[in-house]
Amino acid sequence: MLTSMANIATHAINTELVDAIKAEATRLTVLPAEDDRPKAQGFPVHALPEGLRWIVEHLHATIGFPMDYTGAAILFTLSVAIGTSARITPKRGWTEAAILWLALVGRPGANKTHPLTMMLRPLNKRDLESARQYENELKEWEAAMKQARKDEAAPKPIEPECAQHLVSDTTPEALVEALARNPRGVGLHRDELAGWVEDFGRYNKGGDVQAYLSIWSAQPVRVNRVKSKRPRFVERPFVAVCGTIQPGVLGRLVADGRGANGFVDRILFAFPEAQEVPAWNESEPDAQCADYWQALVERLLNIPPPDEGAEPADAADMRLLDEERRDVLGQLLNTIGERCRKILELWKLSYSMEEIAEQLGFSSADMARKAKYRCHVSLLEQVKNNPKWGDMLR
Questions:
Q1: For 248, which DSSP code?
Q2: pTM flag (> 0.85)
Q3: Burial of 394 (0-12, 13-18, 19+ CB in 10 A)
Q4: Which entry of 6, 289, 295, 309 is 20 to 30 Å from 283 by CA?
Q5: How far apart are CA 332 and CA 288, in angstroms?
Q6: Is residue 263 within 8 Å of residue 208, measured between CB atoms?
Q7: What are the domain boundaries of the chain?
Q8: DSSP code at position 307
């Protein structure tokens, strides 16, 4: 039915009704939608050995470093320092390396970078010494090569290689080259972690995500390059990853299918609830803090990595958890229920969230991920509420 504006204007508006609706609207309370997700847990400082717990708490009290960031930085540095020198085998045929991927999440100015820089200082010091040694060895090699060209009968000198513990801007192919030179493994440190995933596909059309997933699982990797007749094969790759990221760009980590193929599920996020900058205080950190940390990292770095095909050092002590610890681990997993136990086992075996959802009957990968998170939180709560279990599993 068509009508004119003139006809519409003739109908009076019930102003009393409009006023009544407005008055009622001022008394309405908007309730947020119920959020059934479990609350985020703070970094479990209580689970750290006494010396490391002191470092985290001491730096928080004197410099104001958020404990979540310092704890995560400690784990990353120790992961790199251990590398391939030690593994743990809870059961025969089930071996785990100390590979960790971590993300320090916070707004700009939340003091993410400084704890990571401080904890990485021993590794950066080692890398600087190695770089200087490499420069000297390279000069000697170039001189020896120059002399060898004059005497064809003389043996060719071996080209030196630069040892390193940390890498930053690298492609998967270059990463394999670094792993071939450094059998202990390396740590990939990106100040802006979003840049890491944004580089995927930068130099080739695909395969970067799959390459990193294989490396996370410590699966042997090989690279055949067109320009080189020498293939690269790394039997026991080890790459720990850590960097900072702002909450507003977290979505980049799950873009391009990385939220469904298990990639993002391998990252541990340190995201403290309190983001306020602490008030200034006059306390200075104890010099023993840096000395203790340096000595601990050096001690781990002095454990030699295994030769190709060989077991890590002290394999007899690390091959199997002793019977008492296995019993404790079994009791702990039993407390969270059979379904949670199955979810965590499949996730640890590198099943994607889509595969876990299909096997266990979840409606989607997102629902499986939420269930996995709840199970993980439940497991941490059990350890927190039963200190004896945490002490025995250290």
A1: G
A2: no
A3: exposed
A4: 295
A5: 36
A6: no
A7: 38-320, 321-394
A8: P
